[in-house]
């Protein structure tokens, strides 16, 4: 594809990465993807992108490298080492890490990349699988203003609310706060659902009217059907929210912020995972409330 848009390498084609990379293809970008599962690379190729056989192969000619992997260890695995992004991307490239990781990992990555002449933004997202597909994600960014300005047109093909939150790591800090709010919100909805059902109320009607008032939320709008149908196919897995609650509780401890309710919900997420529900959607917090309320789940 010959155009003057930057050439993009995309590393990590999971639940979020696949639809996001496809949205860039739709927006006219030349996208070369790499991920561990070949069928996901094939999916990008079918959508009009290019496949690569390795990280080095994907990033060699890229102007922008975007990464979307599960957690800090995976970011470090793809960034560092002889086969990683920093050794193989060209000087002057812009690395946009959209994974949700610890703020410190983002700070370290930016410092190490600078030695190679590679600019970095941390740009985690909120909005889940649906937000990725619809290109309406909220994107919280940490890094330099000039790099943010350069990346913004590309980010606008992926999301709707795109905000520079401060220096390297700031995007991850805001994402951690996002995950705190989402988890507590899901837990409150789950408790309400069990209370309503045990009271014999029409659940669908109750959730509709609640969602029209001050108790309404994006969480309730997005997860209402999960609650009603007990459909916990993952848009965002409990395993990942468990990781994120670890990030926010650790970061809060480091800065001296108390998270009393967040701490409780972090334990509820951990217990759900211990009960074997880690692969389910985070709306499955409903299952832990049901168990605590004496229901066989």
Explain this structure.
- The protein is an alpha/beta fold.
- It contains 14 helices and nine strands.
- It has helices spanning 17-26, 38-46, 55-59, 72-79, 85-88, 103-114, 128-134, 145-155, 170-198, 203-211, 218-229, 238-255, 260-277, 285-292; strands at residues 8-11, 31-34, 50-51, 64-67, 94-97, 119-122, 125-126, 137-142, 159-166.
- The strands form two sheets. The protein has a six-stranded parallel beta sheet, sandwiched between helices. Strands 7-8-9 form a three-stranded mixed beta sheet.
- Strand 2, helix 2 and strand 3 (50-51) form a beta-alpha-beta unit.
- Helix 9 (170-198) packs across helix 13, helix 10 runs antiparallel to helix 11 and helix 12 (238-255) runs antiparallel to helix 13 (260-277).
- It is globular, with a radius of gyration of 20 Å.
- The relative contact order is 0.10.
- The model has no long low-confidence stretch (mean pLDDT 97).
List keywords for this structure.
alpha/beta; six-stranded parallel beta sheet; three-stranded mixed beta sheet; 14 helices; 9 strands
Poorly predicted parts: none
Shape: globular
Taking all Cα atoms into account, the compactness measure Rg is 20 Å
According to DSSP, the number of beta strands is 9
C-alpha termini separation: 52 Å
Overall mean pLDDT: 97
The largest sheet, given as strand count, sense and whether it forms a barrel, is: 6 strands, parallel
Secondary structure: helix percent: 40-55%
Number of helices: 14
């Amino acid at each position: 594809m010959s155009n003057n848009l930057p050439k993009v390498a995309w590393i990590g084609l999971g639940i979020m990465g696949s639809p996001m990379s496809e949205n860039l293809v739709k927006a006219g970008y030349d996208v070369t993807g790499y991920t561990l599962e070949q069928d996901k690379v094939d999916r990008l190729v079918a959508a009009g992108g290019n496949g690569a056989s390795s990280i080095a192969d994907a990033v060699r000619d890229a102007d922008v490298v975007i990464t979307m992997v599960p957690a800090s260890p995976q970011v470090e695995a793809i960034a560092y080492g002889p086969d990683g992004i920093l050794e193989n991307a060209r000087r002057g490239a812009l690395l946009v890490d959209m994974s949700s990781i610890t703020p410190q990992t983002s700070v370290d990555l930016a410092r190490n990349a600078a030695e190679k002449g590679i600019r970095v933004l941390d740009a985690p997202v909120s909005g889940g699988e649906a937000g990725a597909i619809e290109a309406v994600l909220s994107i919280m960014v940490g890094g330099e203003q000039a790099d943010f300005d350069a990346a913004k047109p590309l980010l606008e093909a992926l999301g709707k609310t795109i905000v520079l939150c401060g220096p390297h790591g700031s995007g991850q800090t805001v994402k951690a706060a996002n995950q705190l709010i989402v988890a507590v919100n899901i837990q409150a909805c789950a408790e309400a659902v069990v209370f309503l059902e045990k009271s014999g109320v029409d659940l669908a009607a109750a959730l509709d009217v609640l969602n029209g008032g001050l108790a309404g939320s994006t969480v309730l709008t997005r997860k209402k059907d999960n609650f009603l149908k007990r459909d916990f196919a993952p848009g965002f897995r409990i395993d990942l929210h468990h990781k994120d609650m670890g990030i926010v509780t650790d970061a809060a401890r480091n800065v001296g912020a108390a998270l009393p309710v967040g701490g409780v919900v972090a334990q509820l997420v951990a217990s759900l995972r211990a009960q074997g529900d880690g692969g389910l959607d985070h709306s499955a917090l409903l299952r832990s409330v049901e168990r605590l309320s004496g229901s066989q789940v």
